[in-house]
Amino acid sequence: MAQVRVLLFAAAAEAAGAESLDLEIEAGSSAADVIAAVARRCRGDAEVLRRSAVAVNEQYARRSTPVRGGDVVAIIPPVSGG
After folding, report:
1. Please, what is the average pLDDT of the chain?
2. CA nearest neighbour of 30 among 56, 1, 59
3. Residues ≥6 apart with Cβ < 8 Å to 36
4. Which of 11, 43, 64, 81 could be joined to 77 by an S-S link, Cβ 3.0–4.6 Å?
5. From CA 67, how far away is CA 73, in angstroms rounded?
6. Nearest to 23, CA basis, from 9, 40, 43, 10
7. What pTM, to 2 d.p., does this model score?
């Protein structure tokens, strides 16, 4: 097991009830696994997490990107503007 820091923004933070979380992950986990773990802990509508972009260590990443202990994973919800 290893620990990662998860940063959540806007609607993702609202859904999770926190702007950041420290999560224990298993070896071989991906960004998608981190998102799924956050969704399981969600107090609100987890759908926003499924639609969100993800970054690992400040670089946009695919959901298949491997995540290791000490990494920082950011979950960035879709943004709309006018």
Report:
1. 93
2. 56
3. none
4. 11
5. 8
6. 40
7. 0.92
CA torsion sign for 26, 27, 30, 31 is positive
Burial track 37-58 (b if 16+ CB lie within 10 A, e otherwise): bbbeebeeebebbeebebbbee
Sign of CA pseudo-dihedral 39, 22, 66, 8: positive
Find the Cα–Cα–Cα–Cα dihedral 7, 64, 4, 23, rounded to 10°. 80
Number of H-type helices and E-type strands within the chain: 3, 5
Strand 2-8 and strand 20-25: the pairing is antiparallel
Structure tokens at 43: 């107090």
**Residues 62/29, Cβ–Cβ less than 8 Å:** no
| The predicted structure's pLDDT at residue 82 | 58
Residue ranges and CATH numbers for the domains of the chain are 2-76 (3.10.20.30)
